[in-house]
Amino acid sequence: MTGNGMRGKYRRDNLEPCGTPAAWRRHHARGEYPCIPCADAWNARCHAYRAERIQARRRCALYRDALDGLEPAEALATRDRENLIAELHGRRWTDVEIGEYTRTTLYTVARIRDRLGLSANRPRRVDLGQVA
Ligand SMILES: [Zn+2]
To answer: Within a domain: residue 7?
Structure first.
């Protein structure tokens, strides 16, 4: 054995075994037809990836709908709900306005806003822009 840290003829054992996406890539790189376990592993990986993309698109659409006032904030995942409240807070909206718009209780809006380290916006003196 030489000093390269590998174990001679066992080097290939360090590679991912057949039945994994990495092994599918290895077949592919060598111009081989993948074995069935590798093809199955690759298909499962691609299927999971597509499902994730679909899920992400749905989540994004739901967020946009909530931002447009079409969905209540409670339809969103926790992180998305925090983002929504931060975004509306960034428009200088008060907790009451955010609560009405997102169909969330004043208590919940204030609790989330506090958790985000944001202080409550004061009501504006003239309130022409907000029509429910
Ligand atoms: Zn294989």
So the answer is: no
Is residue 107 domain-shared with residue 57, that is, in the same domain? no
pTM: predicted TM-score of the whole model, two decimal places: 0.69
17 CA to centre of ligand 1 in angstroms: 7
CB-based neighbours (< 5 A) of ligand 1, an ion: 18, 23, 35, 38
Clarify whether residues 82 and 35 are in a common domain: no
Least confident of 36-40, 49-53, 91-95, 120-124: 120-124
* Mean pLDDT computed over every residue of the chain: 90
Give tens-digit pLDDT for 44-77.
999 999 999 999 999 999 999 999 999 999 999 9
Q: How far is the CA of 19 from the centre of ligand 1 (A)?
A: 6
What domain range is 95 assigned to? 72-132
Report the distance separating Cα 114 and Cα 93, nearest Å: 15
Distance 14 CA to ligand 1 centre (A): 15
Give residue 53 CA to ligand 1 midpoint distance, Å. Answer: 26
The total of structural domains in the chain comes to 2
